[in-house]
Write a structure and sequence with these properties.
alpha/beta
Length: about 575
């Protein structure tokens, strides 16, 4: 088992008591809930160093290995878990389907290899799954919610085939436990002058990207005379935004209920239509989405990728973000809502003075480029962008954030940057700055430090782009990707009437970033234009109105003909 066994052998020679192993395991799980993944890896390894017989720690280490960008560790940990608990074989095999999804790929070759292997591993398990008995499928329900295909679209490739196989398995697993969820419920009566009952099911009725991008604006601005809103919050954590969500809804239910309980709760409310603002981020939510809760079920782009679930009828997207062939990328029917499809409602700025460049540790006289996305958005084929910009601009810094990075993932990412800069005879350490994880105040402060916001390629900024424009009017550059998830910023800039910031390809993207970096006057011009045009984005409700039109049309068509649009 290589490095893991070496770690255990070294650590077990130190003094310690086996009772501490459970403590480390508990700490790791708590840190997992806080997204402190570096501490999770450390905690699990400490627990296993003290007691290598902890099967649960082994399979947890296998699960976290994707975040840790360690394929060898994942496979070794899963095999050790099976060795200790042979009765877990089927469940662990299911988890192993996604072991080739990692945060940071070493190079393009590893990315391509992992892309091929994830397709093969899911297809292989899917084939075996076809012969599973009812008992085996029901057993697998205990393993759902541990891992999912969240990282699959971050590979920058088509996902529909893999997601459809994975989604079909989740559907069959969940309906083996709740057979009544196979049947689409009848459409409740649609009565003149009575509002339609619309449900929103999410784990993010709180300060979160999904709340800010989608839920807040929709709940706030949907016409309450036409639509009676039902909120189903599948968590028990509250903040001030949870109270706002509750105030917008006719009925609001929250808590950690079982899928069976949520099924019964939502079915009893006799909704005309239900919306999942995202599927793919929340590990538990996918179980509920695999059930037939209402006659019409929709998802949206909180996690902009197809669900693959046969229970989801429509994907609610944005006409400004979808490529011409967008319909081919979803198992759901694509609905292109007007403009961005949303009414973005940013929280008020922090009343404190922003943290300065000097306080962050940035160079005071450099051109600061913001690369403020999660590390798994940065693909190795685009690493050359930064040294090419640096070679032309000279005195500049690229700011990356370490949020969600483990030690190994960061080392891998820095290794890529080191090689890319070295190819231009540059030292990456002179140009790349790694910020500590940033809370809302820290993030908005960092926006004020930037000269240029560099959009991530093939998975564009959404909430981060809108916040960069709203709070700091930061000039930015993007180029549209192949899929909707790589076209958020392009859509936003189109609505903002700033097409000159949308490059047609990567080479033009680099040149535009250089132009912005070299000319403070050009940046001032762009900032003024952003400031003047902000109302075109932040006061736009065309997306909400088109959502209302879609809901009425979809419900009426189903009520009349029993068919989808």
């Amino acid at each position: 088992m290589g490095c893991i066994e070496e770690f255990i052998a070294r650590t077990t020679q130190q003094k310690g008591h086996l009772a501490f192993a459970k403590g480390w395991e508990k700490l790791a799980i708590n840190k997992w809930n806080d997204n402190s993944y570096r501490a999770v890896v450390s905690g699990l390894k400490h627990a296993l160093a003290l007691d290598p017989r902890l099967a649960r720690c082994w399979y947890l280490l296998g699960m976290i290995s994707g975040v840790d960008s360690d394929l060898q560790q994942a496979l070794a940990a899963y095999e050790k878990a099976i060795e200790l608990r042979p009765d877990w074989q089927i469940g662990i095999d299911f988890l192993k389907c996604t072991r080739y999804l990692i945060y940071v790929y070493k190079d393009v070759e590893e990315l391509q290899e992992c892309r091929q292997k994830i397709r093969e591993s899911v297809a292989e398990f899917y084939q075996t799954f076809q012969s599973f008995s009812l008992d085996k499928k029901q057993y697998l329900s205990e393993w759902l919610g541990n891992v999912n295909t969240f990282l699959l679209p971050y590979q920058g490739k088509e996902t529909r085939d893999v997601q459809q196989q994975y989604g079909q398995m989740i559907y069959e697993i969940m309906t083996s436990v709740i057979p009544a969820a196979k049947e689409r419920p009848p459409m409740p009566p649609v009565k003149v002058n009575e509002p339609l009952r619309i449900g929103f099911v999410s784990g993010h009725f709180r300060a979160h990207t999904v709340w800010k991008l989608l839920l807040h604006g929709w709940l706030q601005h949907l016409d309450k005379t036409q639509f009676q809103l039902y909120g189903y919050y599948v968590r028990d954590y509250r903040d001030r935004w949870t109270g706002a969500a509750e105030s917008y809804c006719h009925r609001f239910v929250m808590g950690t209920k079982s899928p069976q309980e949520w099924f019964e709760q939502i079915r009893a409310d006799q909704l005309h239509l239900v919306i999942f603002p995202e599927l793919g981020m929340d590990l538990e939510l996918i179980k509920i989405a695999a059930l037939k809760l209402a006659p019409i079920q929709c998802m949206s782009w909180g996690h902009p990728d197809t669900s693959g679930l046969p229970t989801i009828d429509y994907f609610l997207s944005s006409e400004l973000m979808e490529p011409p062939d967008g319909e081919t990328h979803y198992t759901e029917k694509l609905i292109r809502l007007k403009n961005l499809g949303i009414a973005f409602s940013p929280p008020p700025p922090d009343p404190r003075s922003p943290i300065t460049r000097e306080e962050f540790g940035l160079k005071s006289d450099a051109v600061i480029y913001g690369c403020l996305q999660s590390v798994f958005k940065y693909l190795p084929q685009f690493d050359h962008i930064y040294p090419e910009i640096a070679a032309a601009v000279g005195n500049c810094q690229f700011v990356f954030i370490t949020n969600l990075m483990t030690k190994n993932s960061r080392q891998r990412f820095e290794g890529r940057l080191e090689r890319a800069f070295a190819a231009k005879n540059l030292d990456y350490r002179a140009y790349c700055f790694f910020s500590r994880p940033l809370n809302f105040y820290g993030f908005t402060s960092m926006l004020h430090c930037l000269d240029v916001f560099l959009d991530s390629l093939e998975w564009s900024g959404g909430n981060s782009t809108l916040e960069a424009l709203y709070y700091a009017q930061v000039p930015m550059v993007t180029t549209p990707g192949r899929f909707m998830r790589g076209r958020h910023t392009a859509g936003i800039l189109t609505l903002l009437e700033l097409p000159e910031l949308i490059a047609p390809d990567v080479s033009a993207y680099i040149q535009k970033a250089i132009e912005l970096g070299q000319s403070a006057e050009y940046r001032r011009f762009i900032r003024e234009k952003i400031q003047n045009n902000l109302p075109k984005v932040f006061e736009d409700q065309a997306g909400v109105r088109s959502l209302e039109d879609f809901i009425r049309a979809a419900v009426q068509e189903f009520a009349t003909s029993g068919r989808l649009l």
